[in-house]
Amino acid sequence: MRRMNQPHWIKHSHLLGPDEYECSRCGAVFKKRSPACPNCGTSLGLEKEKQDWVDEAEELSWILDDD
Q1: Of 2, 33, 51, 56, which is least packed with CB atoms within 10 Å of its CB?
Q2: What is the spatial distance between Cα 13 and Cα 67, in angstroms, rounded to a whole number?
Q3: By C-alpha distance, which of 39, 5, 6 is closest to 22?
Q4: Residues 1-13: tens digit of each pLDDT
């Protein structure tokens, strides 16, 4: 079992755009994952995925709905 209270990358998966990686320590967002955050220098090995594409798909469906 992974402990997510340790510093980690938060992977944001998007429906129409490239994935992004957010540092759990400082909140900086990057296009690529690295062993340490380029902004604050914290070592980040673990990754937690946040599927933003699900919310984006629901929003797109709502916008395109022809009721």
Answers
A1: 2
A2: 29
A3: 39
A4: 455 578 999 999 8
Tell me if 8 sits within 8 A of 44, measured CB to CB.
yes
For residue 25, give Cα distances in angstroms to 5, 17, 42, 51, 52. 10, 24, 7, 19, 20
SS3 content of the chain, % helix, strand, coil (to 5): 20, 25, 55
Q: Where are the domains of the chain?
A: 8-64
- Give this prediction's pTM: 0.70
Give 27-50 pLDDT, tens digit per residue: 999 999 999 999 999 999 888 888
Give the number of residues written for the chain: 67
In the block, tokens 């209270």 appear at 5
